[in-house]
Specification:
The structure is a single chain. The protein has 606 residues and is of the alpha+beta class. It is 21% helix and 30% strand. It has helices spanning 35-53, 71-84, 98-104, 116-134, 148-157, 173-178, 227-230, 240-245, 255-266, 296-315, 324-334; strands at residues 4-11, 60-63, 87-90, 140-142, 163-167, 216-219, 274-281, 320-322, 342-347, 356-361, 365-370, 376-382, 407-408, 425-432, 435-438, 446-451, 454-459, 462-466, 469-480, 485-494, 501-509, 524-528, 533-536, 543-546, 550-555, 560-566, 570-577, 580-591, 594-604. Strand 16 (446-451) and strand 17 (454-459) form a beta hairpin.
């Protein structure tokens, strides 16, 4: 098996830097076209380029709209392309500049938030200006986020584009709150690693050639998919200045950054020998006034230290640096099967706890299992629903590009709630008489394996303790390739007191993009089988159980059908209340030995 670790190192010359139009330490308000600012930004870009080239690393130079008006930057990009093999690309970040504001009469700067008419005009403007300056169109582009409409337009009009920065992993409610409710970049629910976006929604991987948008998408920074999920992702990524913002350093050293890179290298073990990293730092983060609490000297050192580490890995033969265009072709070659999943078995490298998450996505679902909670599912998104979510002015959804969840334990509570109801979670309860043990309270670890084409996680054995005895158990999770289906096996390994227990695998779900409850009216709960039943969701706390069948919830708001069934199990549905607006689907069976096998399947609602 291969064991490759690929780096995309991306720089962008910002001739209207991120920190422009803010009050400086001297009390002066910077103008967006101020010459001293432009000169400083150019010098920082040159420092970044030299830092990379001195270490034998090639870069992708993503030209901003503003930088295309600078003959000096254009000449530099051409020179570095010739000397070092750097790719000259185009980013749709960095739009604000005097020319843009005069032409479009706006201070908006996020391409996905513009109207479709403006998206087309801005794309054409940027691409044609790039062609005018360089004599060719770029092969790579990007933004913090690129919606499907923009990607499809770019690929139709500029078919030479093969790669794009397309989303920022888990940028949403948590990042919004961390910025005092001022950073309107809602885009969580998408991939953390490279993927081929669907033509329908760029957050979803394409399931076939017909669904293929024609580009390979990469994330905006490689995020820590544990720390980022639990907290503000802007502090936890392969961006040394982000790590400084998170204050994750001591004595001006950043060991967390190296550990983060190493954990990404480790993911090759679970992804057919492929691991990936990207680093994308704009000049605004290295300005001479410092950034956040860090002085310029530390900003500079952190950047040099980061590239020193990448250079060391390259010298040891453990890293391959590629341009974005090179990586897109490489990805296509190494990922010919659209249905092969991307996974991450991740441990806590920030606090040193024993937490372990397992992330999974394919064209049908994205989810996260928390083995600190026995393998409980704490995040679930239904890609099989193929939700078309237009975003931008005029769509009725100006800014929120997040892909909706069915389970989100941070936004809508998980096992631990302050009231009698239940939060969103997929877990299992073991019952003996009046005693109930939820496996979300059983801390364990998991190992990864492949069974044929399926992905398997097997937990370490754990004890389930009752007053009359202890049962040793183990859980097995099988992700069935290409079916949007996960099989859960709860195995009794030892039961010395021969206790008869009831094992109930359950899912508590809802829908949404943020923390707040949305109207559950219109949802249908039911049980399929020889004696079917169906009820509309009316907040009446009803529950129905059948000796056999498949429990389901049809959620038209996200065009989703969620099914929970099992082998020889009873099926149960439960309706929530206004104070606990969830639904519960479960499969259960009584036994003394052996195992209970159940499954979760996601489908498109209609």
């Amino acid at each position: 098996m291969k064991n490759e670790f690929i780096l995309n190192l991306i720089h962008r010359p910002e001739m209207a830097p991120e920190y422009a139009q803010k009050i400086t330490q001297s009390g002066k308000k910077d103008a967006i076209g101020d010459e001293s600012l432009l000169d400083e930004s150019l010098q920082i870009f040159l420092f970044q380029q030299k830092t990379a080239h001195d270490r034998g690393l090639k870069t992708t130079i993503e030209m901003t709209y503003a930088s295309l008006f600078s003959d000096e930057v254009v000449a530099l990009a051409k020179k570095h392309h010739e000397l070092y093999g750097d790719e000259i690309a185009l980013t749709l970040l960095g739009l604000p500049c005097p020319q843009f504001e005069e032409k479009y009469k706006t201070k908006d700067f996020c391409i996905w938030m513009f109207s479709n008419e403006d998206k087309r005009a801005i794309v054409d403007d940027c691409f044609n200006l790039f062609k005018e300056k360089f004599g060719f169109y770029p092969a790579s582009t990007g933004s913090y986020y690129l919606d499907a409409y923009t990607i499809n337009y770019i690929k139709e009009k500029y078919p030479m584009v093969v790669c794009a920065v397309a989303t920022c992993f888990e940028e949403g409610v948590k990042a919004y709150h961390t910025t005092n409710n001022s950073w309107y970049t809602f885009m969580d629910g998408g991939p953390w690693a490279p993927w081929i976006p669907s033509k329908v929604n760029s957050a979803m991987p394409a399931e076939s050639k017909d669904d293929d948008s024609g580009i390979v998408a990469i994330p905006h920074l490689s995020r820590d998919p544990m720390a980022c999920f639990d907290g503000n992702g802007s502090n936890f990524g392969t961006h040394p200045q982000n790590v400084l913002r998170g204050m994750i350093y001591k004595d001006n050293e950043l060991p967390y950054f190296y550990n983060l890179v190493d954990m990404f290298i480790h993911q090759a073990k679970y992804n057919d020998g492929h691991a990936y990293n990207m680093m994308f730092v704009g000049p605004g983060w290295l300005n001479k006034l410092g950034r956040w609490e860090a002085p310029y000297e530390l900003l500079k050192k952190s950047y040099e230290d980061a590239l020193d580490y990448y250079a060391k890995l390259k010298k040891e033969g453990r890293l391959i640096d590629m341009t974005m265009e090179e990586y897109a072709h490489h990805y296509r070659k190494e990922h010919p099967d659209y249905k092969t999943p991307e996974v991450a078995l991740w441990k806590d490298i920030l606090y040193g706890s024993n937490k372990q998450y397992f992330w999974y996505y394919d064209p049908y679902l994205r989810c996260c299992l928390d083995f600190n909670q026995g393998g409980a599912m704490i995040d679930l998104r239904n890609y099989a629903a193929k939700l078309d979510i237009p975003v931008g002015i005029g769509t009725g959804n100006a800014y929120n590009a997040s892909y909706p969840y069915i389970i989100q334990a941070n936004y809508r509570a998980g096992y631990f709630t302050h009231y009698a109801g239940q939060g969103t979670l997929k877990s299992c309860q073991v019952k003996y008489g009046d005693e109930v043990v939820d496996l979300a309270l059983e801390r364990t670890f998991a190992t990864y394996a492949k069974e044929g084409e399926n992905t398997v996680l097997l937990t370490k054995p754990f004890d389930v303790v009752f007053s009359d005895g202890t049962i040793k158990m183990q859980s097995k999770f099988t992700f069935v390739k290409g079916e949007g289906k996960i099989v859960f096996e709860r195995i009794i390994l030892e039961n010395p007191n021969h206790l008869e227990v009831e094992i109930e695998d359950y899912l508590v779900g809802t829908y949404g993009k943020e923390e707040y409850s949305l109207d559950m009216t219109g949802i249908t709960l039911g049980i399929k089988g020889i004696d079917p039943v169906e009820i509309p969701y009316l907040y009446k706390c009803r529950h129905i159980e059948k000796k056999e069948g498949v429990a389901y919830a049809l959620v038209p708001q996200i065009d989703s059908l969620i099914e929970v069934g099992g082998e020889g199990t009873h099926a149960r549905i439960e309706e929530g209340i206004a104070f606990s607006p969830m639904f519960r689907l479960s499969a259960k069976r009584r036994l003394k030995e052996g195992s209970v096998i159940s499954w979760l399947k996601l489908k498109k609602g209609n």
